[in-house]
């Protein structure tokens, strides 16, 4: 892959324990996919100007959580702030991540760039200016 390192961004989407096997919304092949992403970052991370990640980061997301979820608008509790389920999978080298974008604190949130990021720098990313590559594993569920 050829990228322009001065403007390229690799985006790691929700690579968290609750989406891995054993997590509250674990996907069957989550560890395999997360390991592949981790390998990609090790092998190609220097090809990018930035590596960023999104995290579901729920505090009190209202009706997003349900004891009887419909898996469309409501989900079992997952990625609750301060829990192991909200942590990145152990395969991910967090030291390679330049910025983490947290989402879903008090409501459902499906965009990693609609909410706040770790540093609080409000103009960090402009999608129209920076080509981005998304790395995400797909499973049955992705709230």
TrEMBL record:
Highest rank taxon of the organism: Bacteria
The protein depicted here goes by the name Isochorismatase family protein
Taxonomic lineage from the root: Bacteria, Bacillati, Actinomycetota, Actinomycetes, Actinomycetales
Say which family it is in.
Belongs to the isochorismatase family.
| One function term, GO molecular function aspect | hydrolase activity
Q: Which UniProt keywords apply?
A: Hydrolase
């Amino acid at each position: 892959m050829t990228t322009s390192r001065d403007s390229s961004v690799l985006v790691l989407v929700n690579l968290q324990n609750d989406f891995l096997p054993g997590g509250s919304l674990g996907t069957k092949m989550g560890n395999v996919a997360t390991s592949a992403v981790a390998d990609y970052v090790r092998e190609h991370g220097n090809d990018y100007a930035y590596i960023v990640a999104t995290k579901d980061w729920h505090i009190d997301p209202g009706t997003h959580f349900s004891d009887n979820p419909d898996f469309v608008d409501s989900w079992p509790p997952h990625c609750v702030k301060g829990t192991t389920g909200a942590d990145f999978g152990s395969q991910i080298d967090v030291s390679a991540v330049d910025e983490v974008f947290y989402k879903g604190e008090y409501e459902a949130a499906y965009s990693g760039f609609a909410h706040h990021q770790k540093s609080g720098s409000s103009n960090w990313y402009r999608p129209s200016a920076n080509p981005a590559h998304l790395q995400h594993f797909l499973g049955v569920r992705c709230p």
